[in-house]
Amino acid sequence: MEIGSKIVSTAAIKMALTASRQEETRLKKELLENWEVKAVAVDYGGEFISSVGKIVERAVVAAKREGVIKDAHADEGAVAGAAREAIAQIMPKALGLNVGGKIGVARHKDHVSVAIFLGIGLLHLDEVAIGLGHRAVA
Question: pLDDT digits over 80-95, tens only?
Fold first, then answer.
């Protein structure tokens, strides 16, 4: 089976949905061994509008730190662009509210995906949302 955007996007979503660091570690190892997909997840939270820049920054920093991407302008831009795309999908539900969740980043060769899973706080009526972005990097 060819490993492309579907597998990499699925990996990013799965990473964003992990419930614990142990589950993240187990899934990272499984993705690398079975699919040659490098992946990372990182938590975040706060007021949505003021968090947008932090979400993008956390995705890029975590991906570099864990070796998912190289310390190169094109790789950083791909993760940042995919993160912005994922944020744009979530924005209508989250504007003006507090959010908390996890960012998943996955890569295989030239495919990079970023998934954002978040809980949106509105009194005691929490909402959830997932955004997904993909970029190709040479």
Answer: 999 999 999 999 999 9
